[in-house]
Amino acid sequence: QVQLVESGGGLVQAGGSLRLSCAASGRTFSSYCMGWFRQAPGKEREFVATISWSGGVTDYADSVKGRFTISRDNAKNTVYLQMNSLKPEDTAVYYCAATQGNTYASGSLYDYWGQGTQVTVSS
Predict the structure, then answer these.
(1) What are the pLDDT digits (tens) for 24-66?
(2) b/e string for 1-23 if b means 16 or more Cβ within 10 A?
(3) Which among 88, 93, 11, 9 is positioned nearest to 48, based on CA atoms?
(4) Pairing relation of β-strands 18-24 and 4-7?
(5) What is the mean pLDDT of residues 92-96?
(6) How far apart are alpha carbons 65 and 95 in whole angstroms?
């Protein structure tokens, strides 16, 4: 069982930056691949980024490539999402998720989810 708690969301102007954190409980965090997803009002949840258990493999949605960076610190049981050059279309609730599988882009393959943190980008 893994419990995930996101933090770091907030209101930022377009072009600004935010860093989201996701703290995980449990002693087996380093065995999980982690992902970030987001859901805007009236839209389906979409993949943002994923990272392997070691941090050596990452993948991003095309819409965030070059602007967002996913990373993890297994000693702190935490995964991060550094978001730069934010755009109004990045406004959404951001969720982190954990899977004992691979670095999936499909949310249906993740086993555990956090409660989400709101990110609002003003124009």
Answers:
(1) 997 788 899 999 999 999 999 999 999 999 999 999 999 999 9
(2) ebebebebbeebeeeeebebbbb
(3) 93
(4) antiparallel
(5) 98
(6) 18
- 104, burial (CB in 10 Å: exposed 0-12, middle 13-18, buried 19+): middle
**How many Cβ atoms are within 10 Å of 44's Cβ, its own excluded?**
7
Residue 95: alpha-carbon gap to chain centroid:
6
Closest CA to 10 of 75, 98, 104, 92: 92
Beta bridge mates, 22: 6, 79
pLDDT in tens, 79-93: 999 999 999 999 999
The Cα 89–Cα 101 span in angstroms is 30
Cα–Cα distance for residue pair 84/88, rounded to 1 Å: 12
Nearest to 51 by CA among 36, 73, 33: 33
Structure token digits, residue 37: 């997803």
Backbone dihedral region for residue 95 (phi beyond 0: left; psi -120 to 50: alpha; all else: beta)? beta
